[in-house]
Design a protein that fits this description.
Layout: E1 13-14, E2 21-22, H1 25-54, H2 59-74, H3 83-90, H4 99-130, H5 145-157, H6 179-190, H7 196-212, H8 214-227, H9 233-242, E3 254-257, E4 262-263, H10 268-287, E5 300-303, E6 310-313, E7 319-324, E8 327-332, E9 334-335, E10 338-339, H11 342-354, H12 374-387, H13 389-396, E11 401-404, H14 416-428, E12 441-445, E13 451-455, H15 462-480, E14 500-501, H16 511-527, E15 528-535, H17 540-545, H18 550-565, E16 580-581, E17 587-588, E18 595-596, E19 604-605, E20 607-612, E21 621-625, H19 629-638, H20 645-667, H21 673-685, H22 691-697, E22 703-707, E23 729-731, E24 739-746, E25 750-758, H23 766-781, H24 785-795, E26 821-822
Parallel strand pairs: 7-11, 11-12, 20-22, 22-24
Antiparallel strand pairs: 1-2, 3-13, 3-23, 4-26, 5-6, 7-8, 8-14, 9-10, 12-13, 15-25, 16-19, 17-18, 20-21, 24-25
Length: 823
């Protein structure tokens, strides 16, 4: 629909006799080219869909099969065992001169049927093979003969050069776990955070649920799992995201950062030009199904509704929406010859930056409406769509949103800690009115050339946008590059028209709505406490040397850090079980049969760790409940002065093994939370009251964690350019009194943490948790012989002379591939 805006130049005029319409030649050419592009796109998608449908076979294999059948027929052999003769009898009789043609057609039909049957067999075989998840349970570095055989068969059946959706027909459906197993795992997960009385109460609710409602709800889920592509993903998208009425800002969106230690160019327009060009190159490869991620990255907007939002995805969009100093612009990204060059895009962005026109009244704060509660924004949008339809379509129909910020951002030498925190806050919330939070993602370009992404969560999860962001950073910096003076390479195109300024006819009745939305957005933005710090004492290489999972290592350190930073809640809760643990007395735990040591401080909490379920058709995420009894045993031992390092290390390895088992179970569709969520949705549809499911649904996740994966290591040369690695991203806390913690392994020796919490909570402090995370990592590392040196260094200064509170610059010995500004 965004293409329709180009039709403004198409102006028919009637002759005096009103007999015919006169069309200008340029407009006819534009219509012709538009139709040509459309048909090319449709034909391209048709061919890609066909190739995907027959994969791992190819059209060439059909030709080979047909030729073989024809050759056998010529040698008077009948590979069809008489079927081709019967097919010939069913064909029309065109006379004796066409007898040979009937034979060719019969052979072609038989070859097609046989080819289709073989493809179907390959799809079934591959689906059965991909249903095997035993490889997940293999010890690190070891592989059984069964798994080796499975891997060989997968390579045989999986074909070569797959496209984006090549394996869609072969991916197995996500299984519905046993409801008894799910309830058992759930009770095991909440045991460490519940008192004896609360646990007994929850267990009684679980037994009542299994006896009364579980079998009926499970039957409906089994039925859905056979009918739908995925028994949980569509409900997850609808009820967790689209039916949420909360503001998207902080609550739903997340952010991704630029390179931490370098900025390839300080020229804002140049960085925007290269980044936009790289993003659209990525979209081009996505449209041709040459890359793996999700198709709704581009041309996608979350449209607000009074009761439910919906995701609007366009086939194509040939412009981006740009926001600068309170004004909106439509910037075309293509000409008749194709995508604009980076230098041409830089020129267009510079024209926007140089535009002296002021923002119209209330236009500057218009985007704050996208940060308002969804039902409020839905009602206002109806009026906006009536009064300013063209401008709204230009924004919502854009490939993505670009915000040219007037302030610098990123790491500074003068105040590294505060500058990183401000950088994270600017990406997560901004000023509340300078991001269009409905768009699938917004590219933020700061005045000093620093970049960042703000991503809406409903359409896909972090690994999808992370894959795109890695490609963008690597392409714009290493492939496209910059000139010595910091501009994009190439030459500007002075024939391009000026970017189109969007004009909003804002009715008076929405002025108050904009003001209220801005006030709410500023309140929400001002309440978020962001803290980002790179931990540089050790990284993934140190953890791998001890044959440990790096993710499990971090998760155990987070449990130790949270225990140390947390406070003891009110010992007299109003009602229901409180999902915290704060022991006051000495007792024996009947569930685990170990001695609990009396403590005056510290508590455990339910911990949410996200993992992917992409092994299944339309799989999204599952929760790993990282706060296990094994993790709690380890934490208590670390806080017990009577425990020796070998004892703590033994408990640590048990906790890591337990976490790995939970992670693998979640990835293979045997997690807890998505199954319980789906059961709860079914109970709501059937109007069945289940106190157990209500209790599960009311849980508070005071520690929400996620690892930002590095998926394309080959794009970055971390040895030659160690500073050119992404610093990951973060998200808001899931609970008003909790933390959101994200982490990324930057190369082999740095881990960057992103922590968020609410300033309004008296229980949380992002900076204090960050300090405890650093201490916990050093304490865990000290359990290993090599880690003793790291801890001693962490208590004083590192080898470069930096104190433990400073942020080191990892650019020594590295040379930037293009013009770069360190810090």
């Amino acid at each position: 629909m965004a293409e329709a805006h180009q039709a403004v130049g198409f102006r028919p005029s009637l002759t005096s006799d009103a007999g015919e319409v006169e069309l200008s030649a340029p407009m006819l050419q534009e219509i012709y080219l538009s139709g040509l592009r459309s048909w090319k796109r449709h034909l391209s998608r048709f061919w890609n869909d066909f190739l995907t449908g027959v994969f791992p076979a190819s059209p060439l294999s059909w030709l080979f099969l047909f030729s073989a059948i024809q050759l056998a027929w010529f040698l008077q052999l009948d590979p069809s065992l008489g079927l081709m003769e019967k097919i010939k009898e069913l064909l029309p009789d065109w006379g004796g001169q066409h007898h040979r043609l009937r034979g060719v057609l019969a052979a072609a039909l038989f070859a097609s049927c046989l080819w289709g049957a073989l493809i179907f067999t390959l799809h079934v075989a591959l689906r059965l093979l991909l249903s095997y998840h035993g490889w997940l349970l293999q010890p690190h570095g070891a592989m059984s003969s069964r798994t080796k055989t499975w891997l060989a068969l997968v390579r045989i059946f999986s074909g070569r050069h797959p496209m984006l959706f090549s394996y869609q027909r072969s991916l197995p459906r996500q299984p519905v776990p046993s409801v008894q197993d799910t309830v058992r795992k759930y009770l095991e997960s909440v045991r460490p955070v519940l008192s004896d009385e609360d646990f007994d109460w929850t267990a009684a609710l679980a037994r009542e649920f299994l006896r009364l409602q579980a079998s009926l709800l499970q039957w409906y889920l089994q039925l859905k799992s056979w009918w739908a592509s995925n028994y949980v993903s569509d409900w997850w998208e609808e009820f967790v995201y689209l039916r949420s009425r909360n503001s998207l800002m902080v609550n739903s969106n997340y952010y991704m950062m630029d390179f931490l230690y370098v900025t390839p160019t300080p020229v804002q327009a140049a960085r925007a030009g290269n980044a936009v060009h790289a993003l659209l190159l990525y979209r081009h490869r996505l449209n041709r199904q040459e890359i793996l991620p999700y198709e709704k990255i581009f041309n996608t907007t979350r449209i607000p509704g009074v009761h439910k939002d919906h995701i609007r995805h366009l086939r194509d969009s040939r412009h981006v929406a740009v926001f600068h100093r309170g004004r909106f612009f439509r910037l075309g990204t293509h000409t008749q010859s194709g995508l604009l060059s980076p230098r041409a895009l830089e020129q267009q962005f510079q024209r926007i930056l140089d535009d002296p026109s002021p923002a119209c009244p209330h236009e500057e704060h218009l985007a704050a409406l996208t940060a308002a509660p969804r039902d409020v924004w839905a009602q206002v949008r109806r009026s906006l769509k009536t009064q300013a339809q063209e401008a709204l379509e230009a924004v919502e129909g854009a490939a993505f949103f670009v915000s040219l910020d007037s302030e610098p951002a990123g790491l500074t030498r003068e105040d590294p800690a505060a500058s990183l925190d401000a950088y994270a806050h600017a990406l997560l919330a901004g000023r509340g009115h300078d991001r269009w939070f409905d768009k699938s993602f917004s590219l933020i370009v700061f005045s000093n050339g620093k970049l960042g992404l703000s991503v809406e969560h409903s359409w896909a999860d972090c690994p999808i946008s992370g894959h795109m962001w890695e490609f963008t950073l690597a392409t714009e910096c290493f492939q496209l590059g910059y000139t010595a003076d910091g501009h994009c390479k190439g030459h500007p195109d002075l024939s391009l028209p000026q970017p189109q300024r969007l004009h909003w006819d804002l009715p008076d009745k929405i002025h108050l709505s904009i003001s209220l939305a801005l006030r709410g957005a500023k309140t929400l933005s001002g309440n978020i406490d962001c803290h980002v710090f790179p931990f540089s004492h050790f990284g993934k290489s140190f953890i791998k040397r001890w044959h440990l999972s790096s993710d499990s290592f971090i998760q155990m350190a987070l449990q130790l850090a949270y225990f140390r930073v947390s406070w003891v809640p009110d010992p007299h809760p109003l009602s229901g079980p409180q999902f915290t643990w704060a022991p006051k007395t000495r007792r024996i735990d009947p569930f685990n049969d170990f001695l609990v040591i009396a403590m005056d401080r510290g508590q455990f909490c339910l911990t949410y760790e996200s993992t992917m379920t992409r092994l299944f058709l339309e799989g999204r995420t599952e929760t790993v409940r990282s706060c296990t009894r094994e993790a709690c045993n380890f934490v208590r031992a670390m806080e017990d002065k009577e425990k020796t390092d070998p004892q703590c290390l033994a408990l640590f390895r048990l906790a890591v093994d337990k976490h790995q088992a939970l992670l693998k179970a979640a990835m293979s569709g045997q997690g807890v939370d998505r199954h319980l969520f789906a059961l709860y949705i079914v109970s709501q549809f059937l109007h069945l009251q289940s106190p157990f499911l209500d209790q599960v649904h009311s849980e508070q996740w005071q520690l929400a964690t996620s690892q930002t994966p590095v998926q394309q290591i080959h794009l970055f040369d971390v040895h030659s350019y160690p500073a050119y690695v992404s610093s990951g991203g973060g998200f808001g806390p899931a609970d008003d009194h909790g933390y959101g913690v994200s982490y990324i392994f930057m190369g082999d020796d740095v881990i960057t943490f992103h922590i968020s919490s609410k300033k309004s909570s008296t229980r949380t402090d992002s900076h204090r948790l960050g300090q405890h995370i650093e201490d916990a990592l050093l304490d865990v590392a000290a359990l290993f012989q090599e880690g003793q040196r790291l801890k001693r260094r962490g208590l004083g200064e590192d080898d470069s002379g930096h104190s433990r509170d400073s942020l080191p610059c990892h650019t020594r010995g590295s040379r930037a591939p293009t013009t770069a500004t360190n810090f």
